[in-house]
Amino acid sequence: MILFRNIRIVEFDPPSVSELTDVAVYEPGEGEMAGTVAAIGPRLHERFPLATVAGDGGYLSAGLVCAHTHLYSALARGMLVDIKPSKDFAQLLAHLWWRLDRAIDPEILKASALAGCTDALKAGVTCIVDHHAGPECIDGSLSLIREAFETVGARGILCYETTDRNGMDGAKAGIAENLRFAHEVDALRASGVKPLVEASIGAHASFTVGNETLEALADAVRITGRGIHIHLAEDKFDAVDARYRFGKDPIERIEAAGALNDRSIIGHGVWLTQAEADIMNERGAFLAHNARSNMNNAVGYNNLLPVFHNVVLGTDGMGADMLEEFKFAVFRHRESQGPWWPDDFLKALHRGNELIGRYFAQDFTPFAHHVPHSSDIHGSPSFPGFGTVKVGAPADLVLWDYDPPTPLSRDNIAGHLAYGWSSRSAQTVVVAGALRIVDHRPLYDDANIQALSREQASRLWKRMEER
Question: How many helices (H) and strands (E) does the chain have?
Fold first, then answer.
């Protein structure tokens, strides 16, 4: 049992800040309710005298979610590689990112996944939705990434970026890896394990996925019951290409193939149309907004952002600091004179939990009848869902040592996140009931991960120069 004493619970949607209370958490191995919040109320140390005190004071929230990233870019920071000047986004892909993904081998992949996961946890991000690419490292790649997640103790959703750009054999290998890994996760569940890592069906973008491959992706979605995870209309070229070559807008292509559902993750969507937003909303699909990446790549701004019902926030490989991403999303929207306020982006930040709930809720709902009820425990007869601190909810939690210089209340949480509160305040991190970081100190070998990532980054950069 883990115990947080004298804390205030912060909820993002609907926003709230509790009075001082205690929170107890079932650790792994503590019965059917392992990995969930056990109790909330005063003086819980009297009920659980043997509990490990993981924090005393501060603000406790559900962990943050990075809803779209590329962990393979973790070793690109400060890259010392000769990159040709790029006149547009297509050239940038060819000169930089497609060279990088061709240079990935198993050792580089492992190091980048470990480095990305530890960066995320240290920023209070407990779940990472990754989109992997590596044409020379396809078979078994998602299992290697899964091992890195489990080593560090992060939750995640993984996929392989299927594409035609490396030939049809490469496309078929990408489909096969997505299917293989989804079946691997299913086998874990069938054995009674609650997996820490789930699977989606990955694809690069409309302009590198022909109709044959798209049909195979749609089949994979139907076979596995997962959602497609794909970049669409990140750059204007992708939207124009879809209309010119296929006679449909990008979302219309995905919909016509039968690959769009309520687990779909559409990255960027900068150049999607109102009609495409309507289709996504009807299907319950998620739009992953990546403000910093869009700015860095100069692909434009999504002025239709408020039209999409299920906007979530990602980083597109620019680290995993979601509070930093939240700030950029707010400020870039204000610069565009959009109608959203920080509170709207707080909902988008929180909505990442709805996304992961659609993949992981099945691991918790059978145990809802075990949630206790008493005068000093706040419980619910049904699964409370991800992204909340309630009895029976998954114990993916962050204790923040943020000491606000102004009052913090339900009415100004978004303002604190936009103008002050940062990832540096992530003090203690719990994932699935397991302590991963305590008092800013990782409980895994972080120093070795950083040394390994530096070593493999040098190898990656050298291999890129050879391509």
Answer: 15, 19
